[in-house]
Design brief:
The protein has 63 residues and is mainly alpha-helical. Helix content is 84%, strand content 0%.
Length: 63
C-alpha cells in the first residue's frame, strides 16, 4: 500500500464531528486572526511546490 492510498483511506475515516472538533481546536490554538495568515502561507507554499514540480517535469521532458 503506497502513501497516497493510505492517506486517502485515513481521511475517509473522518466524520463531521471530528472535523468540527479539529476546526474548533485550531480556532482555540491559533485564534481567528492567525488562521487566515496560516492558510495564505499554505496556499503560497502549495503554489510554489506546484510550480517547481511543473518546472522539473518540463526539464525531464526536454532531456
Amino acid at each position: 500500500m503506497n502513501f497516497i492510498s493510505f492517506f486517502i483511506m485515513f481521511l475517509g475515516t473522518f466524520g463531521t464531528t471530528e472535523i468540527v472538533v479539529i476546526v474548533l481546536l485550531a480556532l482555540l490554538l491559533f485564534g481567528g486572526k492567525k488562521i487566515p495568515e496560516l492558510m495564505r502561507g499554505l496556499g503560497t507554499g502549495l503554489k510554489e511546490f506546484k510550480k517547481a514540480s511543473e518546472e522539473k517535469s518540463s526539464e525531464s521532458e526536454e532531456e
